[in-house]
Amino acid sequence: MEDKIRILIPEEEVNKKISEVAAQISEDYAGRSVHLICVLKGGVFFTCELAKRLTVPVSLDFMSVSSYGGGTESSGVVRIVKDLDEPLLDKDVLIVEDIIDSGRTLAYLIDILRTRGPKSIRLCTLLDKPERRVKKQVKVDYTCFSIPDEFVVGYGLDYDQKYRNLPYIGVVEF
Ligand code: IMP
Ligand code: MG
Fold this sequence. Notes:
Mean pLDDT: 93
Largest sheet: 6 strands, mixed
Bound molecules: inosinic acid, magnesium ion
Number of domains: 1
Strand order of the largest sheet: 4-3-2-5-6-7
Shape: globular
Distance between the termini: 12 Å
Structural class: alpha/beta
Strand content: 35-45%
Number of strands: 9
CATH topology: Rossmann fold
Low-confidence stretches: none
C-alpha cells in the first residue's frame, strides 16, 4: 500500500540550507582538512550534497550503526554493522548524520570514535528533533533544520527502507 507523504521541507530549501552550512564549515575548518564520517544509510544523501559544497580538502569514510528495528521507535540498543576503513588518529573528524532523535546512536558512536585518537570530533546533522532528546550530552555543532516530533522520510531517511530517494523531507501520514 502507498503511504501518504506531506512535504515538510521542499528540495530547494534543503539544498539552500546545505549550502549555507557548508559555507560555515568551510570557514571554520579553513587551513585544515576535514574527515567526514557518513553514518549509513541515512546520512549518505546529505553527506554527498554537503561534501560537494565544501571548499576545504575532504576525505570520506563510512560507518553503519543500527539502533532501530523496522518501526519508528528507538530500541536503545546500538550495534556497529560496518566499521570505518581508515584510522582516525590526529584527524579533524566531522560526523555527518541524517537525523538526531533520542541521541542514543550518536552518544554511542562518539564514545567509540573518541578512543581512536582524533584531533577533534564535531557533529553535523541534516535534521534535529530536540524535543525527543534522551542523551542530553550530545552536542550538535551544525544543524540544517530543527523539526517537530514527526516521523520524516526522504533525503536519506527511510520508513521500513522506503523513501530514502525522495529529494525533499516529507512526513508520513500514518
Ligand atoms: P536516535 O538514536 O534516537 O537519535 O536515532 C537516530 C536514528 O533513528 C537516525 O539516524 C535515523 O536512522 C532514525 N530516525 C529517527 N527519527 C527518524 C525519522 O523521523 N525518520 C526516519 N528515521 C528516523
Ligand atoms: Mg541515521
